[in-house]
Amino acid sequence: MALTNIRSGSTSKDSSSKSVQRKVEKKLRFYAKVRDTVASLSAKKEISKKRRLRSRQKKLKAYDLSTLSAFLPEPGSAPRQQKEEKMLKLNSKSRQKIVEKESKQLRAVLNHPMFQSDPLAAIHQHLQSTQPSPEIKQGKPSSKTKKGNKKIPGRIRCEYQ
């Protein structure tokens, strides 16, 4: 025998099943809200990750020096450049060394017997042995020489004797 509810005229089973149904519906609504909240939070998280990734990539682009490699000299030419830079940078110590070296060279030249006998011939011989010989071009004369040899009619040439 089931107990009857005096107010509604129904049994206690019916009233308890309705309350259970309401509780279940309430739980389902709560779970749906939680699911929606989790979905929106994960979407926000993805957006912020993408934003951070974009900003990180922009920073990396700013530090990308690969485009400068075309303008930089090759590594093999660096020692030659360093020597040139050292020669350009003269401090007092290096100047003093150069002066001493050149003065020794001058003394050696002045004491050389060939220079003492005929200085100009010694200099001439030294230059011929150290300097490359000039190449003489054979063939057609240059256009400047042709123009200079042309006679222009109507021009009076004055020669003083």
Characterization of this structure:
- Residues 143-154 have a biased composition (Basic residues).
- One of its GO terms (cellular component) is preribosome, small subunit precursor.
- It comes from Cinnamomum micranthum f. kanehirae.
- Belongs to the SLX9 family.
- Pfam families: SLX9 (PF15341).
- Among the domains are: 1-69; 90-129.
- With 161 residues, the chain is mainly α.
- It contains six helices and no strands.
- The relative contact order is 0.02.
Provide tags for this entry:
single chain; 161 residues; mainly alpha; 6 helices; 66% helix; 0% strand; Ribosome biogenesis protein slx9; nucleus
Distance between the termini: 162 Å
Estimated radius of gyration: 51 Å
Number of alpha- plus pi-helical segments: 6
Q: Main sheet, how many strands, which sense, barrel?
A: none
Q: What is the overall pLDDT average? A: 78
What's the shape?
Answer: rod-shaped
Category from helices, strands and their pairing: mainly alpha
- The strand count comes to 0
Low-confidence stretches: none
Helix content: 55-70%
> How much of the polypeptide forms β-strand, as a percent range?
under 5%
Helix/strand order: HHHHHH
